[in-house]
């Protein structure tokens, strides 16, 4: 991705569905909170992704600062809405990717990079030229424009989006994005077109394809069932579905009667049972106690 493409997108930024139109080159910041300079908060081996992403060695996770969705319950709020993170150039970003490869990462995992797509694309192309040979994972909220995703075609091997809500009302109350369901559907269609069917190496590590994550929210089993029904009914075995029970109540939602509590075992069992009833075979479920703040990484600038 050349300098001219980066300049044009940053001058009138409409990379995400918020369509803020701000001039990030002049330091203006839209909904995501980012100007034209890349900010990253952590680059390290990460063990807490799906087994075929983390493996034994870990996923080379690069956490970016800022977010275009801004969920009220976000567990990474210190970087998604805060200022935590270090400025890095595309050249430095490419170097970080190569460092993660040297650490034996199973892949390069770009976490919430949507508002930096042109810069990240340039870094990926440079890293490939310099010897990067790992699969690249695009780890996303699912709130993405297909035309922005097309800028990454040929650079990303695995898409790892969320599909958070089927209800526009729920999306509006939690993420100020009533258009989320329709946006996520269009984004996922583009991701599947690019990445194709799931592929794995001899170790069982994913090398291509799509895994869609869905985080069950407390008291929202009915909406989650609709999400699973849509995903499985639309894509069948062309994607994997990861059902997550790790919702962690954060201070920002302390006063909410539902979001201030954890998901119960019964709620999660109802969702998993429904997925099995539909016929889902290609999926992941979580076992044990995953709703802990200890699972949230330290965003201390490690590796950046």
UniProtKB/TrEMBL annotation:
InterPro entries membership: Aldolase_TIM (IPR013785), MJ0674-like (IPR040085), Pyrv-formate_lyase-activ_prd (IPR016431), rSAM (IPR007197), rSAM_sf (IPR058240)
Residues in Radical SAM core domain copies: 63-198
Keyword Nucleus part of the UniProt annotation: no
GO terms of molecular function: catalytic activity; iron-sulfur cluster binding; metal ion binding
Residues annotated as transmembrane: none
Cross-referenced Pfam families: Radical_SAM
Keywords: Iron, Iron-sulfur, Metal-binding, S-adenosyl-L-methionine
Cofactor entry: [4Fe-4S] cluster
Free-text remark on how the cofactor is bound: Binds 1 [4Fe-4S] cluster. The cluster is coordinated with 3 cysteines and an exchangeable S-adenosyl-L-methionine.
List of residues binding [4Fe-4S] cluster: 67, 71, 74
Top-rank taxon: Bacteria
PANTHER family for this protein: FORMATE LYASE ACTIVATING ENZYME, PUTATIVE (AFU_ORTHOLOGUE AFUA_2G15630)-RELATED
Protein name as annotated: Radical SAM protein
């Amino acid at each position: 991705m050349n300098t001219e493409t980066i300049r044009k997108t940053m001058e009138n930024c409409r990379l995400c569905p918020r369509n803020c139109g701000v001039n990030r080159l002049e330091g203006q910041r839209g909904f995501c909170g980012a100007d034209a300079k890349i900010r990253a908060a952590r680059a390290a081996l990460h063990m807490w992704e799906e087994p075929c992403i983390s493996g034994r060695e870990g996923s080379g996770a690069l956490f970016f600062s800022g977010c275009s969705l801004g969920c009220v319950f976000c567990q990474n709020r210190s970087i998604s809405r805060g200022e935590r993170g270090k400025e890095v150039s595309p050249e430095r970003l490419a170097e970080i990717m190569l460092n993660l490869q040297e650490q034996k990462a199973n892949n390069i995992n770009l976490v919430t990079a949507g508002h930096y797509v042109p810069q990240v694309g340039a870094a990926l192309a440079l890293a490939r030229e310099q010897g990067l040979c790992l699969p690249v994972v695009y780890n996303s909220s699912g709130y993405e424009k297909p035309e922005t995703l097309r800028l990454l075609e040929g650079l990303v091997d695995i898409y790892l989006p969320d599909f958070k809500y089927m209800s526009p009302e729920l999306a509006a109350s939690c993420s100020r994005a009533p258009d989320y369901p329709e946006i996520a559907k269009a984004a996922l269609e583009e991701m599947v077109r690019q990445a194709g069917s799931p592929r794995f190496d001899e170790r069982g590590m994913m090398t291509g394809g799509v895994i869609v994550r869905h985080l069950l929210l407390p008291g929202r089993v009915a909406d989650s069932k609709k999400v699973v029904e849509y995903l499985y009914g639309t894509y069948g075995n062309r994607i994997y579905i990861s059902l997550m029970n790790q919702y962690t109540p954060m201070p920002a939602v302390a006063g909410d009667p539902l979001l201030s509590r954890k998901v119960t075992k019964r709620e999660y069992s109802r969702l998993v049972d429904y997925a099995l009833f539909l016929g889902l075979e290609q999926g992941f479920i979580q076992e044990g106690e995953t709703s802990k703040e200890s699972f949230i990484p330290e965003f201390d600038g490690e590796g950046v």
